[in-house]
Amino acid sequence: MSSKRPAHHDHAPHDHAPHDVPHDHAPHDRTPRDPAPPPPGGVLWTLAGDIRGLMMLPAAFTLQVAHPAVGAGVDEHSVFRTDPWGRGERSLRSVQLWVYGGEAAAAEGRRLRALHATISGTDTRGRRYHALTPAHYAWVHATGFPVYHHAARYLIRPLTEAQERQLYAEWLQVGRILGIRDRDMPPTIEEFWPYYRRMLAEEVEATAVARELVAADGPLPPFDRGPLPARLLLRALWPVVVPAFARVRRFLTVGLMPPDAREAIGLEWTDAQERRLRRFGRVVRLVVPALPERLRYLPLARRARRRHREQLRLTRAARPGR
Q1: How confident is the model at residue 16 (pLDDT cuts 50, 70, 90)?
Q2: Exposure winner among 21, 66, 109, 294, fewest CB in 10 A?
């Protein structure tokens, strides 16, 4: 297969969101064997839709592309340089569908695999790769778990042992939605951490894309989402805004990455930065829980939470004796 980039596609791992799946409705191509998304009320149900999850995603994506094959695929096939805001929006919606999409979750997983089916090339070590090679595809998914596990300590609260186990079980469930076979992911949390450390030691490196994602001085197109007046104002202010935005992005990307992953990529992190991150986390933990639901949760998560509450209300109302 060719490693040339298709002119009209954006094929970065987990980089697409559907344009044809109606909001909150099941697609017509669901099969009886479709894996279900994680359960309402679980750890991912709380984490994935919370706005604090937005701060965690850049660290996870940077750790993904620090793998030579994944970094090469993104370098050659993604539009993250020319359309970073659109790419981020599509990726975020895709992630939300895995958790809150109901019967649309499995359709999104199948769509992602189909979109990755033609991506191949040569990685930074001269090895041939394909995006759906099980080890590569599993790594892309696996990276989110240690990042969520680490970042929650700062932005939400440290996970208990039971929550950690539940989060990993739910992470495996999302992997099934994405078409990752059980044998391609460590089946238990006890087996995950040795796998993760081995990947850091043997595969992870400071790829070109990883370096770009943590650069504080790289080019960044103006934000192009939202109402037109806001976009025009932001475009005018962009030369002033972008340096501060880039510094904050780097700070959170590096700080919310697990220290061993940070070290494997060669990212510097000082004691002073750690103290600032802890202070920032204390503020976030105070402010975000006090926000109303419409500001605290992303749209798909809000709708899913509302549906779940309504289902619980109807179930209670239908019980005998009420």
Answers
A1: very low
A2: 294
The first and second tokens of residue 104, run together, are 């649309």
pTM over 0.70: yes
Q: Which two tokens stand for residue 302?
A: 């809000």
What residue has token string 């039971």?
Answer: 162
Q: How far apart are CA 22 and CA 253, in angstroms?
A: 33
Q: What is the DSSP letter of 130?
A: E
Encoded tokens for 31: 């099969």
Residue 308 CB-half CA count within 13 A: 15
Burial class (CB in 10 A: 0-12, 13-18, 19+), 256: buried
- Find the mean pLDDT for residues 201-229: 86
Q: CA angle, corner 49, sides to 142 and 19, nearest 5? A: 85
Cα Dmax for the chain: 70
Degrees, nearest 5: CA angle 214-216-222 = 105
Q: Give 182's contacts (C-beta < 8 A, 6+ positions apart).
A: 172, 176
- The single-letter DSSP state of residue 187 is S
Contacts of 303 (CB under 8 A, 6+ apart): 23, 24, 100
Name the helix (H) or strand (E) containing 70: helix 68-77
Which two tokens mark 94? Answer: 């895709």
Condensed to tens digits (0 to 9), the pLDDT of residues 20-75 reads 333 333 333 445 588 889 989 889 998 899 999 999 999 999 999 999 999 999 88
Burial class (CB in 10 A: 0-12, 13-18, 19+), 232: exposed
Distance separating alpha carbons of residues 306 and 290, to the nearest angstrom: 18
Hey, which residues does 122 pair with through a beta bridge? 128
Q: Report how far residue 271's alpha carbon sits from residue 286's, in angstroms, rounded to the nearest whole number.
A: 23
